[in-house]
Amino acid sequence: MSERGLQRGVRSVLRADPRKDANAALLSNFEVFQLLTDLKQQRKDSGKHKQSSGQQNLNTIMYETLKYISKTPCRFQSPEIVRDFLIAMKGHKLTKAEKLQLLNHRPMSAVEIQLEDKDCLYTSFPESKSVSWSRGFERQNIQMVEESEERLTEEQIESLLQTVSSILPGNPEEELQRQATMAAEEEGDPE
User: Fold this and answer.
1) Which band of pLDDT confidence, cut at 50, 70 and 90, is reported for residue 10?
2) Short-list 59, 37, 34, CA closest to 48
3) Least C-beta-crowded within 10 Å: which of 95, 116, 151, 175?
């Protein structure tokens, strides 16, 4: 895919309202990560050094997006893991957007499912070429599963968490630290 084609594709995805545009698609962090990593490698392999201002803006957006997204659980995912996760999610009555939230954020507690405060990357594209692109992060409250308290029982939430933690890999260092903390808490627990 050419850079111009990617620019148009990203614009259409970011602007599209899935309720109005049947061709609009939601992309997981993993898909965006893969796409941008592949594009970065293609550019590196091509050896082109002279770039237009539009390409420089795209490079900046790619860099900022990769920097942000590489800190999320998607860097430990693969196409097989995503496929296995979506197959396992068929047993849970969730929307596509809710499954996407779970895939992107890998919640480990019921509280994370019910209300999550996240930094979200946004990019706005200008209608005119005379205006530069804007990008940044904003803090948003995101409920991963809408009305989860009404829709899901505690057992269903625990089952959901078990599915997420058993299929989606986390940061290996954080996982070891979490296990060590839990073991230390169990040893000190006077039950």
Assistant:
1) very low
2) 59
3) 95
